[in-house]
Specification:
The protein is built from 10 helices and 7 strands. By secondary structure, it is α/β, with parallel strands linked by helices. It has 2 domains: 131 residues, Response regulator (Rossmann fold); 80 residues, Arc Repressor Mutant, subunit A (Orthogonal Bundle).
Length: 237
């Protein structure tokens, strides 16, 4: 079944380009195309949507309307996915998007959405409940983390480090289990141990999974590793 999506973008040229990409995709049913956040809110209330794709800056405020909308929808429509498209590699915006949890949220840079493949894949991932953050944003967040204090990363066991590597590659718990020859339950136990060692109690802001991956990226050479996703791809968290 196609993912029912709505698009909001105030730039005519960008809106037309994205509309063309989405209308050509069999995996997506483009329900509505909006010019601002107010129009998008009306569509959300009247249509049965799975995902909204929105510019980060739109009228009426021309500020962070996309982030504000994502925050509203976390409360009013918790099952609705939000993909924020931005022209800015701005780590604080990405972290603000993930407040309250990373599930069903994505942050992509417009300059790196060169074809429909990445955007469609992200729409499908968010509709499933996943989170996708542009790899360039992850790199910026990791560099920011590296400037601060060191973590308890060295205290992780070899198996826990293997699992953290797979998390950084975007693997779900089931996928990590398949890759490492473990049961999903065993993976979950190791991940809880990772959170405990990294001093990450449950919180209501950015998910522990996202923060654990950022610590790993900032304190290892993973960013420059040969198996790092190539430019233009994203990190799935």
């Amino acid at each position: 079944m196609a993912v029912r999506a709505a698009l909001a973008e105030d730039s005519f040229l960008v809106r037309e380009a994205l509309t063309h990409l989405l209308e050509e995709a069999e995996e997506v049913e483009l329900v509505a195309v909006c010019r601002d956040a107010d129009e998008l809110r009306e569509v959300i209330e009247t249509q049965d949507l799975d995902v909204v794709v929105t510019d980060i800056r739109m009228p009426p405020s021309d500020a962070d309307e996309g982030i504000r909308l994502a925050r509203e929808l976390r409360r009013t429509h918790p099952r609705l996915g939000v993909i924020v498209l931005s022209a800015y590699c701005d780590a604080p915006y990405a972290l603000a998007l993930l407040e309250g949890g990373s599930d069903r949220r994505a942050y992509l840079l417009k300059e790196r959405v060169h074809s429909g493949r990445q955007l469609i894949g992200t729409i499908e991932a968010v509709a499933r409940g996943d989170s996708v953050i542009d790899a360039k944003i992850v790199e910026t967040l990791a560099e920011s983390r590296a400037a601060g204090r060191r973590s308890a990363l060295p205290s992780l066991s070899p198996r826990e480090r293997e699992i953290l590597v797979e998390m950084a590659r975007g693997g779900s718990n089931a996928a990590i289990g398949d890759a490492l020859g473990m049961t999903k339950r065993a993976v979950e136990k190791h991940i809880n141990s990772i959170f405990a060692k990294l001093d990450m109690p449950p919180t209501a802001d950015v998910s522990r999974r996202v923060r654990a991956v950022l610590i790993y990226l900032s304190e290892t050479d993973a960013i420059a590793a040969p198996d790092r996703p190539p430019p233009g791809t994203s990190a799935r968290l």
